[in-house]
Write a structure and sequence with these properties.
It is built from three helices and 38 strands. Strands 33-34-35-36-37-38 form a six-stranded antiparallel beta sheet, with no helix packed on it. A four-stranded antiparallel beta sheet has the order 1-2-3-4, with no helix packed on it. The relative contact order is 0.10.
């Protein structure tokens, strides 16, 4: 089994600020944390995914459905399944047992090769903790790391540990100090492991080392950098990669770290995988060429050779099972595979257009990759075919509004004119044809049959539960962000755009014909409306 872990980072396209904070310390860190605390609450969709740098911009962490409130026994994921939080990393405990980690301290576990996944308790649900890395050294012992810096401004840099194959997890390290990020972890055996991150308060890289299974941790000194990926093959030999193409190497268990020359002029490295002390591969993104990076060494990093000449924008993770066989994943669902030590890399079809953030193989044939949109894909034939273990697959959901008229029957609408309908309280959702491709932002039903949806440039109506939708009103460059009906005839839509010359508008109908009911200054933007009885 591969004794490495590839960590995933989940942060915004502010590479320059991050580096500045790293070297200037707590003042910039505090400002950066404050900015992110507000900025990341407005999340958007990026089909490419995220990277640190201009080659691959991204918005804050992306979701395809509303996050289920944590800490409540009354909320359950219905779509996507098994859950909808972004996933950042995956690691095999044994050929059948895998652990995937992600946003909101999500931990997923399977014991049947991914046929079924269950959500395990991390202890940090609802605390804003993002788990960025996970590493198993054997079937029982595993470690996950993360922090909540980006979403709350500080605290809860955590290391979680399991000794029962991921069924239960205990905290082995928790630093409540704001401005500390933990990105990656690699254990070479049950006792010996290393965690990487950054302490913005000190303006320094963070390397933590344990030799007793996480009971105690010692700080190690490394060159200042924003570390991203780590791989140890034994207790002594390990490699860390990071922003700016940084590569550092230890041969004495981290007592000393030596910089190595990656040859990267303007790019970042995100993942690294070694199969022994000499043979390793690092992946990332080159911002000069806007293409991915794959570097290979056969001498422990004394020399690194570039191997990739394709067009994928970047690679986020890599997993090798022996010196010759490995897989890298990244932007827009990219997967490449080598069976000759990287002399050639062959493109594989993942089936998803979304950013793949983590990958782990147990042998040459069996592997799993996870995505920013909570997708889990699996191969049992070395990547010749990849199958979705999450649903829907691929996951392109991005919903904006929901309306239920009674406990069983409801409708959701979203980007790209998407409309889904359930008649069994959400156990199943069926696609409906909206007839448009522009985004829908609001929906209102008065009973099981009669409803309206509104969005960019259009207002739609249905009288048969959504089996057919008809455009009732349209106006270019106008966005109808809210809609509400009190009965079959009387309704109001609100929005903004040129239909109201001075900005925001209110449209009113009593018979299906939409008339302006008023308009307001452009800054007065309406996003929702309610009648006095609370009906949407």
């Amino acid at each position: 089994m591969e004794k490495v872990s590839v960590s995933r980072t989940a942060f915004v396209n502010l590479r320059v600020l991050l580096l500045l904070a790293l070297f200037t310390g707590s003042i910039v860190a505090a400002l950066f944390a404050s900015t992110l605390n507000g900025w990341t609450r407005h999340r958007g969709t990026n089909p490419i995914g995220f990277r640190l740098g201009p080659a691959m911009p991204r918005s804050a962490a992306i979701k395809t459905s509303s996050k289920a409130p944590s800490g409540s026994a009354h909320w359950f994921w219905q779509r996507p399944l098994p859950q909808g939080n972004p996933l950042y990393a995956v690691s095999f405990a044994d050929p059948n047992t895998e652990i995937a980690v992600g946003e909101d301290a999500t931990i997923l576990r399977t014991t049947d090769g991914g046929a079924h996944w269950t959500i395990k308790t991390s202890g940090y649900e609802g605390a804003g903790v993002e788990l960025f890395g996970v590493s198993f050294s054997d079937a029982s012992n595993g470690t996950a790391v993360g922090s909540n810096f980006f979403f709350s401004g500080g605290g809860n840099a955590v290391v979680l540990r399991t000794t029962d194959g991921g069924n239960t997890w205990a905290t082995k390290y928790n630093d409540p100090t704001p401005g500390i990020l933990l990105f990656g972890v690699s254990f070479s055996d049950a006792s010996t492991g290393t965690v990487i991150g950054v302490d913005f308060n000190l303006g320094a890289a963070l390397i933590l080392r344990t030799t007793d299974g996480g009971e105690t941790w010692a700080n190690q000194n490394g060159p200042p950098a924003l570390y991203q990926g780590i791989s140890f093959t034994d207790t002594n030999n390990g490699t860390i990669v990071g922003v700016g193409g940084v590569i550092i190497r230890t041969t004495d268990g981290g007592n000393n770290w030596t910089p190595q020359d990656s040859g990267i002029a303007n790019g970042d490295l995100y993942g690294v995988s070694f199969t022994d002390a000499n043979n390793g591969t690092a992946v990332g993104a080159d911002f000069d060429t806007s293409t991915g990076i794959i570097l290979r060494t056969t001498d422990g990093g004394a020399n690194w050779d570039s191997q990739y000449g394709g067009t994928d924008l970047g690679f986020q993770a890599v997993s090798f099972t022996d010196a010759n066989t490995g897989t890298a994943v990244g932007s827009s669902g990219a997967i490449v595979r080598t069976t000759d030590g990287g002399a050639t890399w062959v493109e594989q079809a993942s089936g998803t257009p979304n950013l793949l953030q983590g990958v782990s193989f147990t042998d040459a044939n069996n592997g799993t990759a996870v995505s920013l949109t909570a997708e889990i894909i699996r191969t049992t034939d070395g990547g010749t075919t990849w199958e979705f273990q999450s649903s829907p697959g691929p996951n392109t959901d991005n919903f904006r509004a929901v309306s239920f008229t009674e406990s069983l029957t409801g409708t959701v609408v979203g980007l790209g004119g998407r409309i889904l309908r359930t008649t069994d309280a959400g156990q199943t959702w069926l696609d409906q044809v909206s007839g448009i491709t522009s985004d829908l932002w609001a929906v209102s039903f008065i009973d099981a049959n009669q409803g309206h949806a509104s969005g960019d440039s259009a207002i739609l109506g249905t009288t048969d539960g959504g089996n057919s939708w008809v455009i009732q009103h349209t106006h270019g460059f106008t966005s109808y962000r809210g809609i509400s009906f009190s009965d079959a005839n009387n309704g109001t839509a609100v929005g903004q755009g040129p239909e109201a010359l001075d900005g925001a508008l209110i449209l009113r109908t009593t018979d299906g014909q939409w008339l302006k009911g008023g308009h307001f200054p452009f800054w007065s933007l309406f996003h929702r409306c309610k009648y006095w009885d609370g009906r949407r």
